[in-house]
Design goal:
- With 362 residues, the chain is of the alpha+beta class.
- 44% of the residues lie in helices and 14% in strands.
- The strands form two sheets. A four-stranded mixed sheet has the order 4-1-6-5, with helices on both faces. Strands 3-2-7 form a three-stranded antiparallel sheet, with no helix packed on it.
- Strand 5 and strand 6 form a beta hairpin.
- Helix 1 packs across helix 11.
- It is elongated.
Length: 362
């Protein structure tokens, strides 16, 4: 196809897509604002998280921290508690750090400049393009998982969508398609197309507003795209935790280091089970190694399972009584004895919430 024809082809695609999006887009709270900070919060929350789950969290977060200054002034613990259950907690930590940079170094305003915004903690190429295009109509093409899938089918792209080496190819296609006059509206339309029409399984091709332009549709190869690089099944780790009660009826919580998985959250102490070790012996050993305490009256409470992005865990939970020792931390950032009733005041991992009801109901 010659260059002139290609440009006209792309323009026809844009018009069809934007007309559909203008008529049928979902009514989502972050689409009813032009506040750059609110748009930014929504884009951070939407990373690797389904829209229906984000809606309630977004509204709760914005009600609690309506301005970027409110977020910067809040403690990290308050931020993590509001975020609790949404997962990928590094997003919350980075959003909090970035808000402090904006307030302390950028006069409290979300930067309109790509390079400046891109340097903020937690901001990647996608976030920068999405926020700046939607909030400021800046001409940057956003490329997320939904958009990669749309592009792969539109152009029969052989590049695996889960291979970092493919990112440049998808970005080039997105840049070429981007509507220069309405980049933010166009980016949202592409995201919407991938979410509700060009789905991973059973795409709704017959009602797709741009099926005329889709090579996979015309070749009846929708199910063959996008391509993915084969990955190994996620490993499963067997862990134990100990809910230690002192004489006052309080339980010991430990706080994870601020960096890494679940950084800053609170949990009951524990660790992995060694090969050939019983769960009960592993619990006693880990409590001694992690918090320097010896315990007695061990009682099996329950088992919980939880899946993270790259691995799964099976956790055996024990209830026990404090016997001897002073708390000395080997790994955790902090530790506190708290009442069972106060547990819900702390940001806790989802796996902990799976057995928290059994403790509170005792």
């Amino acid at each position: 196809m010659q260059k002139k024809q290609l440009i006209e082809h792309y323009q026809d695609f844009r018009e069809a897509l934007l007309d559909w999006f203008g008529r049928y887009r979902r009514d989502l709270p972050w689409r009813n604002t032009d506040n750059p900070y609110h748009i930014w919060v929504s884009e951070v929350m939407l990373q690797q998280t389904q829209v229906k789950k984000v809606v309630d969290y977004y509204e709760k977060f914005i009600n609690r921290f309506p301005r970027v200054r409110d977020l910067a002034d809040a403690s990290l613990q308050d931020v993590l508690k509001v975020w609790e259950g949404l997962g990928y907690y590094a997003r919350a930590r980075n959003l909090h750090k970035a808000s402090e940079v904006i307030v302390n170094e950028l006069d409290g305003a979300v930067p309109t400049d790509y390079a400046t915004f891109r340097k903020l903690p937690g901001v990647g190429d996608y976030s920068a393009a999405a926020v700046l295009s939607i909030a400021f109509n800046a001409p940057y093409a956003a490329v997320d998982g939904n958009i990669k899938r749309v592009l792969a089918r539109l152009f029969l792209m052989e590049a695996p969508i889960n291979d970092a080496k493919s990112a440049k190819l998808f970005q080039q296609k997105a840049d070429a398609l981007l509507d220069p006059n309405e980049p933010g509206f166009f980016n949202q339309a592409m995201m919407e197309l991938g979410a509700v029409i060009c789905r991973p399984q059973s795409p709704a091709c017959l009602v797709c507003p741009v099926n005329l332009f889709c090579e996979a549709f015309h070749a009846t190869q929708q199910a063959e795209f996008p391509k993915r690089r084969e990955t190994k099944p996620p490993p499963e780790h067997h862990l134990v935790v100990g809910v230690i009660y002192n004489k006052a009826g309080e339980v010991l919580l430990t706080q994870r280091q601020l960096d890494g998985l679940l950084g800053g959250l609170w949990e009951f102490p524990g660790g992995q089970i060694a090969e050939g070790e019983t769960a009960e012996n592993a619990c006693v050993r880990n409590l001694g190694e992690v918090v320097n305490l010896s315990v007695r009256n061990m009682r099996y409470l329950t088992r919980v399972r939880h899946a993270y992005t790259h691995f799964k865990i099976v956790v055996d939970v024990f209830r026990c009584d404090y016997e001897d020792g002073e708390v000395v931390l080997n790994g955790p950032r902090d530790a506190k004895w708290v009442t069972v009733a106060a547990l819900q005041d702390y940001p806790l991992p989802r796996a902990t919430h799976k057995f928290l009801g059994e403790l509170i109901g005792e």
